[in-house]
Design a protein that fits this description.
Structural class: mainly alpha
Largest sheet: none
Order of helices and strands: HHHHHHHHHHHHHH
Radius of gyration: 20 Å
Number of strands: 0
Helix content: over 70%
Distance between the termini: 31 Å
Number of helices: 14
Shape: globular
């Protein structure tokens, strides 16, 4: 692979140690949260969350937290794994093109026979491969604990939740990478993608509370959490929205990257 895709292989080789650390951290935290459910199931969880507004409970997936699928979908997939993976994807996306450009490393690649499309595509592939590995770690831990602790979560729903989590994290990673490619500045990519993630979460959580349901409808996080795939299965329309949004974002980033003077 290093001969056919030298940039892709180089990025993965340089980041393999950091990726391993992230994988261990994700496995540990997600495993801890998931394994808590058998102990929490003896508590009156519904009474504990009764004080929360109904709209917020539905937005956060707490309306069915008393079940194993509802708990894992909201606490593990909807909170811990989501937050950590967003940090990784946004930071990794900003460091994929904008980072090397700021350090002057991208200039070396531009002097090679490879076209800009290959540079952009291979660096994008490296980001998505890393995201795929970490999402697979979350799935593997959850799947294993589901069997060992006999949580009874349907495997099909777990796969559906994992696929839609992967699409969501990939979208925000793509936003960060595209902004970095368009601006050439890591700070701009980080700030823009992080701001979008925060606004997306706020739109999904607060929109229904203030009678503006349309805010949740335009929120990428809402496309993932609104249907809670861990309890309701795969939702093709929301998945398609994430795929289209990622494609448009990456196309815009490539359009700007292909036209910028990267040597200044």
């Amino acid at each position: 692979m290093s001969r056919r895709y030298p940039i892709l292989a180089g990025v993965l080789r340089r980041r393999r140690r950091g990726l391993a650390i992230w994988a261990v951290a994700l496995a540990s935290v997600c495993g801890m949260y998931t394994s808590l459910f058998p102990y929490m199931s003896g508590m009156d969880i519904e009474a504990m969350t009764a004080s929360l507004p109904q709209g917020m409970m539905e937005a956060l997936g707490y309306d069915d937290i008393s079940t194993a699928a509802g708990y894992v979908g909201s606490a593990t997939y909807g909170l811990v794994a989501l937050a950590l993976l967003l940090v990784f994807a946004i930071g990794g996306g900003a460091a994929t093109i904008a980072g090397p450009e700021e350090r002057g490393e991208l200039e070396l690649e531009l002097t090679s026979p490879l076209p800009r499309s290959a540079i952009y595509g291979q660096r994008l592939a490296a980001l998505w491969i890393q995201i795929t590995v970490l999402v697979a770690v979350v799935f593997a831990v959850t799947f294993t604990l589901n069997l060992l602790q006999e949580l009874g979560i349907p495997q099909g729903d777990m796969v559906a939740a994992t696929v839609q989590l992967w699409l969501l994290i990939g979208f925000f990673g793509s936003v960060s990478l595209a902004l970095g490619a368009a601006l050439g500045r890591r700070a701009g990519a980080l700030g823009g993608a992080a701001a979008l993630a925060v606004l997306s979460w706020m739109f999904n959580a607060l929109g229904p509370l203030i009678g503006l349901d349309w805010l949740a409808m335009i929120s990428p996080i809402g496309w993932y959490m609104d249907t809670n795939p861990m309890t309701r299965g795969f939702h093709g329309a929301d998945a398609l929205l994430l795929v289209v949004a990622s494609g448009l974002t990456l196309a815009g980033g490539w359009w700007r990257f292909a036209r910028r003077d990267l040597m200044t």
